[in-house]
Amino acid sequence: MTTLMQDVRYALRQLRKTPAFTSTVLLTLALGIGANAAIFTLVNAVLLRSLPVADPRTLVRVGDNDDCCVSSGTKDSGDYGLFSTDTYEQMKKNAPEFEELAAMESGFGYRPIVVRRDGTQTEARSVMGEFVSGNYFRTLGLAPRTGRLLMDSDDVKGSPMTAVMTYEAWQHDYAGDPAVIGSTFFVNTRPVTIVGIAPQGFYGDRLSSTPPDFYLPIESMALLANAPYVHDPDAQWLYLIGRVKPGVGLIALQDKLSALLRQTLAPSKIFSFANTKPLLAKAHVVLTPGGSGIQNLQGQYSSHLHLLMWISGLVLLIACANIANLLLVRGMGRRAEMSVRTALGAMRTRIVRQLLTESVILAGLGGLAGLAVAYAGTRMLIALTFPGAQAVPIDPRLSLPVVGFACALSVLTGLLFGVAPAWIAAQAKPVDALRSGARSTAAATSWLQRGLVVLQGALSLVLLVAAGLFSQSLNKLQTTDLKLQTENRYIVHINPQAAGYSQRQLEVLYHTMEDRFHALPGVVKVGIATYTAMEDNNWSDSVQAQGQPDLGLNASFVKANAEYFDSVGTRVLMGRGISAQDTSAGPPVAVINQALAKALFKEGNPIGQQFGAPMQTETADYQIVGVVEDTTYTSARWKNHLMYFVPMMQRPVRIKDPIEEDTSLYAGALVVETIRPMSEMESLARRTLADINPNLTVVKFQTFDAQIAERFSDERMIARLTMLFGGLALLLATIGLYGVTAYTVVRRTAEIGIRMALGAERAGVIAMVMRGAVLQTVLGLTIGVPIALLSVRFVKAQLYEVATADASVMTVAIVTLAAAACVAGIIPARRAASIDPVLALRTE
User: Fold this and answer.
1) What are 701-735's pLDDT values in tens digits?
2) Rounded distance between C-alpha atoms, residue 400 and residue 524, angstroms
3) Surface-to-core class of residue 618, CB atoms within 10 Å of its CB (0-12 exposed, 13-18 middle, 19+ buried)
4) CA-closest candidate to residue 619, choices 627, 611, 629, 628
5) Cα separation of 462 and 788, whole Å?
6) How far is it, in rounded angstroms, from Cα 378 to Cα 41?
7) How far apart are CA 254 and CA 356, in angstroms?
8) What is the mean pLDDT of residues 437-441?
9) Exposed, middle or buried: residue 404 (CB in 10 Å: 0-12, 13-18, 19+)?
10) C-alpha to C-alpha distance for 213 and 128, rounded to whole angstroms
């Protein structure tokens, strides 16, 4: 320990004596380690994080997919991850292998609630609420922050309606007011008693950019959310998570639950047809670890985060190579010191340990600086990954896993960039102290330095090509012709269902909204629809043309008013669009897009034809009255998107259920077109809706351009980060090449002086120095080009219409690296050409 402390003190003195060297190394390390720690923070929070619950390792999820949100059809694979309330109750009752089995709403993110505290003058607000089973909190092993949590008695039909508020909402929206407990809140206009506050840090059963603010019992959903599918045996809408008793075999339990699933699905009429009966036998569940919760967000970001880890790792490798070069240069400056120490009896292992101590201390200090970079970088990553989100449960502050990762990375990098320089410096011989240089050692160092520069160049090219590919992919996405008009268009997301409107009141409401918004100065069109173009939403159903065989087609559908097509800029190509006369009392009609027309009728005329759900023996659901162009919905990556549009209040012919059970009649958004940009449109929209009904709140307000840009946020994040890492790698490689070239000039000062004394021209000296820099760059390109081409196959799935690194991307990357190499080489080359021959000869 005494010797170690001596090494540490000596290392600190040496580093303090060379502030320029120390600062350069620390800055390089801070950027390299900080970038990796920032990415790891996000990876840890999204991919490796367990739920903040008791003993998450013992949780088991019933299901292995992230299907959402309400499904009533069959699954060709037979793999179920969503379940009906009836299936949940049967599993809970007949599977005593579970200590507890809880259920939770799968699609709460698409169904916000409207809340207002009783007795206050505050406006109603649209927030997230999740409906869960009464044993939800007990299953997760949670205790309340204050008050109590939901119990089985809350989740019983006819019981008083209750709710649990999250700690974050309690603090942020109600300043931790203890009077909230036991008070009444109006949830979707219905009185609900707040019985308790969830524990601090609990964000729910899944990681989400919009976590719930309230938890409510499933039994209250039918009344609060007017959801007719709560007890519909054909509607799958619940995720299931439970705790299995010790000693229970998961394979046997999985088989038992699969049998229970088939038993509950068997009475469904959907399996009564000849082509669906075989699917019942395939129905099964897969038990998966539930400690991390429902993996919706993890599945969305997994590939992106793994890619960023690889890229940041390459940047750190380039940084290590750069620092190793600096240490080699520094080691050559200290070769006389090492020779003297060897002559005085120092063992080679002692010298290596001393130099490695310096490297590890440098890495440790760089790691500390990297943690500060990581904190700022994580905040930037969160902003890029979840643009506009206000309550993402990811903390950018330091955590033990992140600190541990940074420490381990610091030690690893210290060894990685310190071993070779320490070993070479330790080769100094005592006789070297008596002469001006150690040529053999210098030669070995020179080759290693050049090799490191070649490695930096090759890796930098790979990252530059990656940046070019993702930028090219993003550009293709953003310049895709979506067949939409976005200028002076505003999207006003609404939730009439949460405002207390019944289905029979909607037709009057929609006419009122049209009239009120048209009365605003500057408003041209008012479109109303269940969801809008380029929105994260999709409703779909199976379709078949009347009189034709079932082709197994599935088409998305949108319900809209007469002005919707004009409001989003969709052109009618044949027939007519939806008109004001297409009311609930009129015959059901539909407008289909070009892709669906081609799929159903090939080149035939679709106008007047009928279509609807397959296997209907009576009249088809809709008559086609028009064809519109293929505008883009949900994602620009979705090609040949089959779609049809129906009037807002019309229902398919086959639907015989009461109108009170049809939730598809609720509009989700207005599209307001104005004659000019209107910065006050959001406040006008809020005021207009509040004048109609104080509970009719704005769920979300965006310009149409902003909504479309939001759909490219993932690609934009990857493109920007690869460009940032590519630029950082290029900078490090340039510094590395400059350092090696400058050091070579210093070593060859006498030689250059002799050449110039014998008549060598300045241009010849510059060319001689540049030749070495260019050769290293060419070697780096020779290695980097095939690696870059090979690497494309690993990221092709994340690119849009980019299958390989084309000539333009490769050329730009090569030219950029070559230009940086020229800049790095020309400065020491000009300095070499300015050497005074007399002064150079005096150095010998």
Assistant:
1) 999 999 999 899 888 889 998 998 898 888 888 88
2) 56
3) exposed
4) 611
5) 5
6) 7
7) 54
8) 44
9) exposed
10) 6
